Amino acid sequence: MAVTRRTDGHLLPCGRSVEDVLDNLDAGRDDHTCEHCATARRSLENLMEATAALVADPSEPPPNLLDRIMQAVRVEARRGDVLALEGADHGPADVSEVAVAAVLRFAADSVDGVWARSCHITVEPESAGTIAVAMTLSLRYGSGPADGLLGEVRGRLAAALAGQVGLHAHRVDLEIVDVWPEES
Amino acid sequence: MITPVEELVDVRVASAAADAARATPGVERLQPGLWGLVQQLGHELWEHATGEPYPDVAGVEVELADGAALVDITLATDGTVPAAQVAAAVQRAVVDAVAVRAAVPVVSVAVHVCEIALPG
Amino acid sequence: MVTGSAVAEAAPSDGGWDDATLVARAREGDLRAFEALVVRYQRRIYQLAWRMTSSSSDAEDVTQEVFLMLWRRLPELREDAAVVGWLYKTATNRCLNVLRSRKPTSEVDEATTPSHDASDDPERSAESNEQMEALAAALDRLPPQQRAVWLLREVHGRSYDEIADLVDTTPQSVRGRLARARVQLAEMMQPWR
Fold first, then answer.
1. pLDDT (tens digit, 9 = 90+) per residue, A61-71?
2. Could you tell me which chain A residue has the CA closest to the CA of B109?
3. What's the predicted TM-score (pTM) here?
4. Are the beta carbons of A90 and B108 separated by less than 8 Å?
């Protein structure tokens, strides 16, 4: 039998490489062939124990890190497309499209068994204060007839637009793009 | 060039506008932009001239033209009042507050709603 | 479209969204969805950065930069479900850059070396804590690339293929580097050294 010996490995005095010992250890093979191999194996086992301890001892990020990240993101998110708001007398007023989309997604999510995926808003050039909404949805399988759910989503979207934004949607397109398995 | 006096008026207008906006029902907070975060230069001047701490005007920008102010406010609403209604109310409150506290007429208040708070 | 069994696994039992949905929503500017992604992954990224740089302030900076970069790059992210791989890759690169920019002569500063206060967890045995300290110290002495490979595999459980992609090499080479890292760590941890 030809002996393939690794030339790139760390050779033990017995001629075997530490990498071979490592392979056997990973594979769960027993190879206490000599004192040197056994010593190498013990130190690698020691490393594995220490690794397990290291994995089990995570350092927690500081509690304000999330806020720091989100503040930086908010500053960037502040720019973006806006929708004009009606009814202001002392100057222009607008709302970020992103903020309106978030309100609409939240409203759709509030219907049991429905999750909003994407939400696109377009402005109607002819009528100020009026928008068109195109939303894609995931439904949970077994939540009821899709028609009923979609009707409920439409109602919630209209209510959220009126109550939280002050805009009116003259057109709402809903598309189901995914069905999730029923929760067990 | 902005003279120190104009700078002080700017801050007075911005401070009145910021307080009025924050006190308007439906306003959750004012949202500073990148510019607002780095705009620290006037602080020393203000504190030296007035002896008061620099007011919190993040989210408010002021431009003075011919003795009248153009105000620009970016804010988040709390979701209890329609954003359009909040914006109109903020405009009225800012016009009144700036006239009273800074004695400067306001030409226009632009309101940008950057976020609408969601429940929960 | 009704999807198969993989979906059930993708939907966490806590009712949260899968990564693809969060990314799709965040891409449209949904800050809540983005925040959910940060909450989900900041811990892992911070921990990787902390073990890589041995400095909590560098780890914080790296974590913040990585997520801000994610926000900016959302439109370019090709596969929505691959966000975790993108985060690991970006974080690893940022950490290697941080280490490269440090003065080459600077020795490991004891004060900034990750250290664990055993009093945090009285349950932990003194022995395993000692071993872990020795490992953390040994890790600091590994070359940064090897340290990255070891951490990504042994602590974060990333696949050889993914790590190969992360550090721009082949899976075969990752295996080699990992074996070398393990041997070196085991050697450095010997108490008589």
1. 999 999 999 98
2. A91
3. 0.60
4. yes
Which chain C residues touch A106 with a CB distance below 8 Å?
32
* ipTM at complex level: 0.86
Which of C163, C48, A85 has the alpha carbon at shortest distance from B82? A85
* B79 vs A74, A89, A164: nearest CB: A164
What is the tens place of the pLDDT at every residue in C19-30?
888 898 888 878
Q: Which two tokens stand for residue A9?
A: 């490995």
A80 CA to centre of own chain? 22
Which subunits count as partners of chain B given 3+ CB pairs below 8 Å?
A
Give the model confidence (pLDDT) of A41-98 as tens digits: 788 888 888 888 888 877 889 999 999 999 888 877 766 778 989 888 899 899 999 8
Looking at the complex, report in whole angstroms how far the Cα of residue A69 sits from the nearest Cα belonging to chain B.
14
Please tell me the predicted confidence (pLDDT) of residue C7.
28
DSSP A97-134: HHHHHHHHHHHHHTSTTEEEEEEEEEE-SSSTTEEEEE
- Are the Cβ atoms of C154 and A46 closer than 8 angstroms? no
pLDDT of residue C15: 45
The span from the CA of B92 to the CA of C91, in Å, is 48
- The DSSP secondary structure of B25-63, one letter per residue, reads TTEEEE---HHHHH--TTHHHHHHHHSSPPP--TTEEEE
Chain A residues with CB-CB distance to B110 below 8 A: 91-93
Q: Tell me how long chain C is.
A: 193
From the CA atom positions of chain C, what is the Rg in Å?
A: 19
3-state secondary structure of C77: coil
